[in-house]
Amino acid sequence: MTELYRSIFMKQKMMRKVLYSLIPVTLGSIYFYGWRTLVLMAVISVFGIFTEYLFKRKSNKKVSEAVLVTSILLTLTLPASTPFWVGIIGIIFGIVFAKEIFGGFGHNVFNPALAARTFLYVTFPEPMTVQWSTVSSGFPGGFARYLSPALDTITQSTPLGILRQGGEMLPLRNLFIGNTSGSLGEASAFLILVAAAYLLFTKTADWKLMLAPVIGFVGIHSILLLANVSSVPSPLHGLLSGGFLFMTVFMTTDPITAPKQTEAKWIYGLLIGIIASVIRIFGIFVGGAMFAVLIMNTFSPILDEGIKHLKSSKRKKVTA
């Protein structure tokens, strides 16, 4: 089995560390929603690997381990009841149009998992925004079932849905531990923070790219609260609701699509936090974080080049 794996995949230590960090989030998703999480993840991963293989076989290259990261991340951004065919379409779109069309791993401008999730969010709104599942609790939770029961969207809603409707905010404890419905990977802020701690400890992710979006998000929320703008939740409720933390930890820190210059990283992250907050509060989409990251993916190369140009100009002035 090991030899077969090595014959298919190129070794990427950084991607493997990201996979390790996703283990607690994945186990949490199974506990909250059932074993369908793993089945959906397996189906999406198989089609993701096969799609990339079709592009690599002509040049006799191996499939990148990054495709596993992309497949798992995409799965964790989906509702538990997402139809398999929807997940398959999403991963094929992400690999083809957000990765291989740019030349494969290391050349992509957009995060493939995020591009795939956004495509599905816009193209298939019903399974992506309405068909939620309830969260299991107690022992053994979702480990004893295939899929938790469907959420009654008439009498119940996700945390972001409640906030948008101006309803009573859920207890912070529920948002932190994971007793709230939503996409598979966003259920527990605690498990996301565990993954973040591992990525930072192993130096797999840049702390600046994690901290900057949080500062931007909390900052703009605080300003709007002070300005008495209606329907603005407390910064902490906004931070723990929805997929913002998940996007910050796993998408914003993507080393391929994020800027390389230190100053550019701060600008990039701050703007992601601000844009995500503005879209959530004033836009028609509650999933502001994914749009914010993709928007800033577009400007990442420009930020790097702009910072380099400024630094070069300063050096010339000093030596002149």
UniProtKB/TrEMBL annotation:
<feature type="transmembrane region" description="Helical">
    <location>
        <begin position="266"/>
        <end position="295"/>
    </location>
</feature>
<keyword id="KW-0813">Transport</keyword>
<dbReference type="InterPro" id="IPR004338">
    <property type="entry name" value="NqrB/RnfD"/>
</dbReference>
<dbReference type="InterPro" id="IPR011303">
    <property type="entry name" value="RnfD_bac"/>
</dbReference>
<keyword id="KW-0285">Flavoprotein</keyword>
<dbReference type="GO" id="GO:0005886">
    <property type="term" value="C:plasma membrane"/>
</dbReference>
<dbReference type="GO" id="GO:0055085">
    <property type="term" value="P:transmembrane transport"/>
</dbReference>
<keyword id="KW-1133">Transmembrane helix</keyword>
<protein>
    <submittedName>
        <fullName>NQR2 and RnfD family protein</fullName>
    </submittedName>
</protein>
<feature type="transmembrane region" description="Helical">
    <location>
        <begin position="236"/>
        <end position="254"/>
    </location>
</feature>
<keyword id="KW-0812">Transmembrane</keyword>
<keyword id="KW-0472">Membrane</keyword>
<feature type="transmembrane region" description="Helical">
    <location>
        <begin position="184"/>
        <end position="202"/>
    </location>
</feature>
<dbReference type="GO" id="GO:0022900">
    <property type="term" value="P:electron transport chain"/>
</dbReference>
<feature type="transmembrane region" description="Helical">
    <location>
        <begin position="67"/>
        <end position="98"/>
    </location>
</feature>
<dbReference type="Pfam" id="PF03116">
    <property type="entry name" value="NQR2_RnfD_RnfE"/>
</dbReference>
<feature type="transmembrane region" description="Helical">
    <location>
        <begin position="38"/>
        <end position="55"/>
    </location>
</feature>
<keyword id="KW-1278">Translocase</keyword>
<keyword id="KW-0597">Phosphoprotein</keyword>
<keyword id="KW-0288">FMN</keyword>
<feature type="transmembrane region" description="Helical">
    <location>
        <begin position="209"/>
        <end position="230"/>
    </location>
</feature>
